[in-house]
Amino acid sequence: MNLTTLSKNAIPLYGDPDWRGKCPLEAAEAVSFFCQLRAEFPELAKVATHIRNEGKRTKRQGCQHQQEGMNAGASDVIIPVCPPIVMEMKRKDHTLSSISKEQVDYLVAAASGGAFTGVALGASGAMEMVRAWVTKHGR
Length: 139
Description:
By secondary structure, this protein is an alpha/beta fold. 40% of the residues lie in helices and 14% in strands. Strand 4, helix 4 and strand 5 form a beta-alpha-beta unit. Helix 1 runs parallel beside helix 5. The protein is globular, with a radius of gyration of 15 Å. The termini are far apart. The relative contact order is 0.26.
């Protein structure tokens, strides 16, 4: 599934969807985002979490992880504030990324539960999303 399908699910996209070019991998964007978050919003950075849900695993490992509470599709960044920020991070050039049905379903479920959800394109998109939350919720 590509990121252009998000509008059908009412999931906001943060960042510039028209941006194209060489850009860091998602992991590097996450590092950059957390550095910026610590500098600009240290109170949010104290509770922000990157969910390590990526990677290959055997069927047995997958079953074990699922029993332990791992949720396929869980968003990359969760900031447990009120309302919670639930963010799926992708590369700045979204044509180099895709989003799974499970990730979309997770975001839709989180939004229906009252979370502030979105897909962020790179660290700049992630900071845009956090600033939008701050603006809306007066923090």
